[in-house]
Design a protein that fits this description.
Distance between the termini: 58 Å
Organism: Bifidobacterium biavatii DSM 23969
CATH architecture of one domain: Alpha-Beta Complex
Largest sheet: 8 strands, parallel, barrel
Protein name: Putative amylosucrase
InterPro entries: Amylosucrase (IPR044077), GH (IPR017853), GH13_cat_dom (IPR006047), O16G_dom_2 (IPR045857)
CATH superfamily of one domain: Oligo-1,6-glucosidase, Domain 2
Helix content: 25-40%
GO molecular function, one term: amylosucrase activity
EC number: 2.4.1.4
Structural class: alpha/beta
Radius of gyration: 24 Å
Length: 604
Amino acid sequence: MAQATATDDIFTTRLARHRDELERLFMSLYHNEEAFGTLLAAMESAAKDRPADLKKLDVAREADPEWYKRGDMFGMTMYTDLFAGNLKKLADKIPYLKEQKLTYLHLMPLLQMPHPNNDGGYAVEDFDNVDQSIGTNEDLAALTKKLRKAGISLCLDFVMNHTASTHRWAKAAQAGDPEYQDYYFCYDDRTIPDQYDAVVPQVFPGSAPGNFTWNEQMQKWVMTQFYPFQWDLNYRNPKVLVAMMSSVMHLANLGVEVFRIDAVPYIWKELGTNCRNLPTVHTIVRILRIILECVCPAVVLKGEVVMAPKELAAYFGTPEAPECHMLYNVSIMVNLWSALASQDTRLLKAQIDKLNALPENCWFVNYLRCHDDIGWGLDEDVERQIGIDPLKHKEFLYHFYEGAVPGSWAMGELYNYDSATADARSCGTTASLCGIERAIITHDKPALDKAVDRDLLMHRAMSFLRGFPMLNCGDEIAQLNGWDYKEDPDRIEDSRNLHRSKFDWGKAELRNEPGTLQNRLWEGMASLREMRDDPCFAPDAWVSTWDTFNDAVLAVVRQIPGETIVGLFNFSGYPQHAHLNGSQYVMDALDADLDPYEAKIIRR
């Protein structure tokens, strides 16, 4: 009883710190005292139900609020079924994860979903339960406990914008229940949908055109910005917000420590706007952050915000009213691949400079590949400034990475090609996009060596930037494209399945055999962790690019009081020379020669 009272007191203290702001924000959306009371009751219940070991973690994280910014943070993302089959079997594979000194594991969506049309798990049928093909809630709780013991924090996606059309709310709406039709955007005719469509961009104009789908059973148009089987939630209804927040708290109590909030810029809809990045979105994210800080402060938020750098700072909030703890670094990922294909780092440098200019509370998860495609959203204004035609450059890039440009070493596929706009995205694993697959097929040993150098260059450059690195599972053993997806009728329509293949445990067995391809990549990833052991990877380190007087070479400087290191990255297939001017307050001048695709770390 004494323990329960102490816990109640802690929650009460945390809530008292935030209640006024929480109520003000909630009322600004809904003006509904009863709904606010329901939210508070859900928070109190979740706080009481929180397991004792997680309550201890809450206290520890409150004393160490920048735990996720430390230099030893090293992440990986994967699909549970592709890596191990299910959650129980994944728990048995934790020694493999510990070998890599992982501190962060992002499992792709594993909540209850329809089969087969689930958009890789992003169409959710039940936000409170694990999909039975992967395991149970008990399996998830057992896994998170084992991961915590191994020093690994689990990240799960939380799909805030929509549910599956088979969710119980959607089923009730289709059956004619007006209460649940108000959980979505349902209209009898095209009057309001046409008003939205006049200004709201299409997410997938090629594969899922329009923002609304006609539902025959309901005899209404329903908003479906992503796919017809994903119904957009109506956050104007307070019941939606309270229910979704309750599900977040439930998952946190199963041991989830990081939530990647999916498609968050889209969650508030307003006629006459493009329904992107509206101020009310930030109100909702701030409400979520407050709820976490009251109920489960060990948990952090990672936003998926595929927007221009000028839009990103708002999703972190302010030091006084924070929102996301960190964001996916989508723009740097795209610019890294652009730099590699073009052997030109100017766009990459400009983008890094923009992100480094963001406030200190902005933090990123850096990566090369993930479950998704590479969308070529480069900064067109900068492209024009330096004499690059944006459309021609985009066409060059996606054709280069499908291997259709003379001299290309890449093997990949297009995703969502749109002939009207000449837009397309790219799919493939890191190894295959860097040329490893083509070199193996052609038995070209020199080409294979160069391809491995490209792969390691990309990982080293990504890991040197502000934030922490996340590998895509299989990158550590140079896993190649899974072309067999074309033989599966449930998967053939989505080319992203090219890089969503079963983990090759046979190849992984070769990781400790010197001279093997797998060992070269495995040792290369170990070198990333060694590099990041340097004190200059502290959370408060100063990070900046530096001019090299050579467009093929990127220079990044990291500095803490008394120590400076410089990362030089040659994105070309030729030897290069770099000159860095000195600065009275940073470092002396520097000259360096680099081999093709070499990454060189120099202490000043």
